[in-house]
Protein kinase domain-containing protein
Amino acid sequence: MLKFLKGVVGSGGGIKDLPYNIGEPYSTAWGGWAHFRGTSKDDNSPVSIFSYTGSNAQDARLAAARNGAKRLRVVRHPNVLAFLHSTEVENIDGGVAKPTIYLVTEPVMPLSEKIQELDLQGTQRNEYYAWGLNQIARAVSFLNNDCKLVHGNVCLASVVVTATLDWKLHGLDVLSEFDGANPAATGPMLQYDWLVGTQFKSLELAKSDWTTIRKSPPWALDSWGLGCLIYELFSSAKLAKTEDLRNTSQIPKTLLPDYQKLLASAPVKRLNSAKLLENSAEFFHNKLVETIQFMEILNLKDSVEKDVFFRKLPTLAEQLPRPIVTKKLLPLLSSALEFGSAAAPALNPLLKIGSWLSQDEFNVKVLPTVIKLFASTDRAIRVGLLQHIDSFGAGLSTQVVDEQIFSHIATGFADTSAFLRELTLKSMLLLAPKLSQRTITGSLLKHLSKLQVDEEPAIRTNTTILLGNIASHLNDATRKRVLINAFTVRALRDGFAPARVAGIMALMATAEYYDATEIATRILPHLVVLTVDSDSDVRTRAFQATEQFVQSLKDYYSKLQSGDPTAVAAPAANVASAGSLGLLGWAVGSLASKKSNDLSSAPAEITSGSTIMTASASQTAAPPSIATHTSAQPRFHVDEPATASPTSNDGWGDAQDQAFGNDDEDEKDGWGDMDLPAEPALALSRIRAAQQKPVTTQPKPVATSTSSPVKHISRPAIGRVKESSPKSSDGWGDDDDPWAAIAAPAPSTTARPLNPTASRPSSLANGPRRQPQQAQHVSIDGASSRGRGRAAPMKLGASRIQRTSD
């Protein structure tokens, strides 16, 4: 028999055979066991280690400990302590060999110590006790009704608590089979009943009336033990004697009737533990119990039930005991999101509960799940992560962002939803500093190059602002190639006034990176043009920037002439002080405003919910034109056709194509040397003036069969970001007047057949011709949706007519 038990619990030559490290002990344990904290030698994971040392090999208490180890190994239930490992060794103490049993389980701590640690009061205490009693009642019901086993010693000391605050039943040393159906059975049914304290014994067990016990239901003894556990919980004291069970002053009124049934003097009248949860529905069905039970059977719920539950959970979590929420609900939420049983609405309560944790706890309990969610293809989850990235972005390491997260986030740059594109763009304010130079130049700048010609003006504006903020994280060569092209050629020539303002502010914020030649030849010409812009805020910013850049050049050359060695530095360093704070505050303020957005309230579809960044409190208030470009209820899938962008077909596609198709190192990021447009930024006053000019028409001779091919006159694209033009040394071309190209040429009134054909019959060769029609006016470049200038007359010309001679 001893050999069999050793085979069950294991044996070894010493504690060195135990693959676990024994740590500090707990102050209390059940039935003479010692309870220690421990860790695994393999992965350092936490465990609990119980040990019992017998006085000799024939110690009866040692036999009971072996019975407990054997029973724990074979009894498996979610509410019974989980077995991991056991072994028995002999320790030499004073020349006497003393056998010791080591029992390793999942990490737990005594319930009495956990109650003192939580220190819950009032309703929250009762809700937690209801949840714990629910679990213990299920464990007892499993033993009594399903396994026909009797625990025999249910009390406060036989309950332990896991790290997630779940209650587990242990102390199975007295556990025995119920043999009431065997009429030939004699003697004690519980072999180790002498381990049960006198105060916990029912009347029949105290008298060792085994005949009555065998005639009683299997749950009779353990129902009495449940009553003892309830008394110890609510009285906050250990049961000293059986008579104390009559004191019901601390028992909740909703639980009192069933408490009295559990402690009925007649064993046959005692309440079955399975019926306890049904009878005391008012006590056991509270907010905490219902919330946890819903999470545990989440896979069985439909999508509507899940959606309603997760939308209410943030408010409900504030009403529940915070320790239970952070230690029990939070792991359930993380697991549900990670394995796909929870949808996007669960992300908001996850991050809200995570905000109650310390930074170290958040990095351990929440951040790993968030990192895995970035790989999700669910657009709603991606939106939720980007909306709340400011709450966890600071905790992301450089390696995680560069190697694991960015590749998934970058898919949002090309998403069909403008709202998601803008959220992706704004997330770079926190993530770009954590990216390597290889990722920035090889991937990020390519995406930003495309976003600067996005169809949404708000996205173009925010891209300029982002570039200004991350300029300090670019290397010198990249800054030289990217910044001026992005801020002048694109931003300052954007048809959207706030985008031009953003370009001016970005230039001022990054002034320290430009030398005198760049300021004089590539920056000031663009700024001076904007001093006659139609938008008042653009003009104000342009004057401010122009004056400061000019003053910086004066100071620079004054120092240069005086031989000051500091003149070698960038001449515009003092300009940055006036603009950088405003730019950075602008972007940060906009990103912070997104923090209040609730993912759970976002509809299923999102349109271009692009929010233009508002100026910070320290800066001049933004004009009315810098308003939100947001629909009342953003949607995801845009059904209507997208409006053509003023910059999507402006001639800058060549620069982008070259960026992706050229192997040259300078061009691979989409920001290579760009040809400056042949015309300056918009000046609506000049356009209106050109529209007022009278148009004179001159008749032309009718086309003959030998007429020359039609010549096409290229017209300027009004409101475009860029047009292709011959590149000159100063970036402006050979025109002395850059505004002259805006004036429309005189239209042609040459007659032209309405329906020309490839060939014409000879009989019609000398026939009458159609009368010349008046020139029709069409919008410049055929742009009908935006960028409209005045209606320019379409030039008509002669077309070659093919005739055949007979």
In short: The first helix runs from residue 2 to 9. Residues 20-107 form a domain with the Phosphorylase Kinase; domain 1 fold (CATH 3.30.200.20). The chain has 29 helices and twelve strands.
